[in-house]
Amino acid sequence: MSVTDVSTTAPAPSGPQRADPAGGRSEWSAARIALLLLRGRTLIVLVLLVVVFGLLSGDYLTHSNLILMTKHVSINAILAIGVTFVIVTGGIDLSVGSIAGLASMIVGGLIFNGLGWFGGGRIYFSTVVVVLIGIAVGALVGAVNGLIITRFRVAPFIATLGMLYVARGFAQLRSNGGTYPDLSGSSARGNTGFDVLGVKSWLGIPVAVWIMVVVAVIAVVVTTRTPFGRRVFAVGGNERAALLSGIRTNRVKVAVYVISGALAGLAGLMLTSELGAAYPDTATTYELNAIAAAVLGGTALAGGRGTIVGTLLGAFVIGFLSDGLVLIGVSTFWQSVVKGAVIIFAVITEQAQERLQARLAGRTA
Amino acid sequence: MTGATVAAAAPVDDDAVLVARHVSKSYGGVQALRDVSFTARRGKVNVLVGENGAGKSTLMKILSGSEQPTSGELLLDGRPVVLSDPRTAMELGIGIIHQELSLFPNLSVAENMFAGRELRKGRRFVDFATQRRRTREVLTRLGQDVDPGTPVGNLPIGQQQLVEIGRVLMEDVRILIMDEPTSALSNHEVDVLFGVMEDLRRQDVTVIYISHKLDEFRRIGDRVTVFRDGRLVAEADMTDTDTGWIVRQMVGRDPSSLYQRQATTPGDVLLEVTGLTCPGPARPLLDGVDLTVSAGEVVGIYGLMGAGRTELMECLMGTRVASAGEVRIRGELETRATVQRRLGAGLALVPEDRQRDGLVQTMSVKENITLATLSSLVRGLFLRPAPERATATGKVADLSIKVPSIGASVTALSGGNQQKVVLARAMLTEPVVLLLDEPTRGVDVGAKSQIAGIMADLAAQGYGVLFSSSELAEVMAMANRVIVLAKGRITAEYSAEEVTEEKLVTASASDRVLEDLA
Fold first, then answer.
1. Whole-structure pTM value
2. Which range (A22-26, B29-33, B161-165) has the least confidence?
3. CATH hierarchy code of domain B16-93+172-252
4. Interface of A with B (CB under 8 A)
5. Which residue of chain A is at minimal alpha-carbon distance from B317?
6. Sequence-distant (≥ 6) Cβ neighbours of residue A70 within 8 angstroms
């Protein structure tokens, strides 16, 4: 049986029938405008937020507040960028908050106590090495996630849910639940300067924001300009087709969990540096904010669709919304309600966008 | 050969129990049935034959109430009826056994038999004991010694099919429609089923039976009706027909008008397969398959559903694990069966189900075309946009793919153009042997002949082409050599000169021959 040739036949059966051509044309352009608005919805929401809160509070649009809010966004944005890679392959990573916590505790211990060596000696690593170790710990946990998912065929939701508990448990075991209170290091041990990540500024802009910008730029380039990025989207769009095209789909999957884990490690260190101490429950539930930012930015949970810029905008919407609500004195309980509603609304509009896109695609062909 | 070609409405006679009168059905722009007048005769086995897409299944859906005709009417016992849904049809005594199983694998045999119409004890509780007893009775009638408590998913596929049949037998059916019920059955199970059908016939139950297997339906059928391209083209008493007549009616047109084939002298052997075996749940999916493809050759694999065509392609491509056998490409033994190795060695597969295995629906035409050859479009770490566009545009032009732009979503294309996108991707890998699994399924006639043309061109350029098909006309017209697969084994091989429809049909359904060999 031959399939309907879209290029030669009238509108798709599912679409509404149009009576007169003129009406059809105007409805079509209306649909295109609607699609444009839906595509830009995250940006529109962000602009609206800034305008509304700016009107409600005189402090909102000040230079210092904007910088502070952007700094607040940076940690969630970095987590969300990592999670975006995973979600685009059709997976999910629930363990990023716990990975951030584990990286925090490992690094905190290395700066505070050093590494115990044979004969009771202690080795202190330089801050740069410590930071690299923290990121490597995240990457390693991510690799374990990826291997569990690809080798043992565990659903990503379950594998990373398990890792959420395992990594958090190790974070607590590291200090038996205690805190590493002082991370300023000492120049004798050559491990000062950990506060650069979360406290210091460069050219008037917090280092955390610079890190976010660098991570975002690299992520945009990787997703749009490299074969690897293309393969990530292919695996999420249709894994079987990707496999038949010679893509090592399991490798791609492991790689995205490594990226997610490494960025979670980095975000954990930034948070620890900002707090000036390492707590075992650092970044608890941060995974949810990160996933929310990705979804808000148009990343499809089914895989295959998403952009880094969208995720970044999503992170900004969540951050600017929370801070704005704080500034105008809305209770934290209401903040939670609003945030949840925004996320659900985002997914509803995403569905609308996809339906509209499919309809227009059928007609332009 | 008195098979009268029917154009006028079938006469309404006493034998006519269920009649479709001038029935047409269209889906969107596709006309699936055109003015079909069909009569099912009381107490007879009415056989329907025709190629894929000829309209048999559509008619069955209309007769069983799951589809409504676009025009025309149905008569039951001479009175017009409207079968608005399958339940209404069932209440009127019309039962259907579908080609695809519609069982719940997680439920027991007895629960499946009574799904949706459970026997009650009191008002609320299911009467499991009676359900089980009646299930056992039906299973006995079907010659199956199966515990009614067994989950259906644990049964071999043939027994599952019999459960499906038992489910309908449990109802008080006067008219039983069977859509290729034997495709999953072993010969013994087929014999049992035919015994049951004889029984039904004696009880004056009318059977409407769709099948591709000529040797089978000739044993059981009383009447045969042939469909082609949505039309009823012929009907006759089975005794008045022979295999040749049926095949001629099925194929109809002169297939060579549609396809091109170039007579070539095969060059070096490019692909050599020996003893390829692939294990399956009941019997091997592939059983000691030997074949070769030479340069300049288009080799067709013909086989019915379940013959192992797709499995053969998958084993060659490395997406399915073979348990034994050797694959040599250009004389080199290929040991590790991974997709990357096979692509590297020079195989590329255009899969049967392009939606499931071929296209990345979320990507553009361009991204789909270049997906398998991204590494060749890289400078340093980055993709080069200009060469990528040029590559995609070139292939779009080569294969005359109709697209709004190469950046358009691949889902906006018609079936034939989508198929050409998958083909373009495979061709870009510069394969030595191109594998195509049912390349013309679900594409319109124009695209079919274009795809056939592309295959012939590739062969002329010195590539090897191996394709599979379940359509007689197609495989005969396109292939330089035809290999017939039945139940995982090669049963015959013909050159283009010696192949006939009858030979192919006989070889593809030669289960019995095989069992004698075994």
1. 0.77
2. A22-26
3. 3.40.50.300
4. 1-10, 12-13, 221, 225-227, 230-231, 233-234, 236-238, 240-248, 300, 303-305, 357-358, 361-362, 364-365
5. A244
6. A206, A209, A316, A319
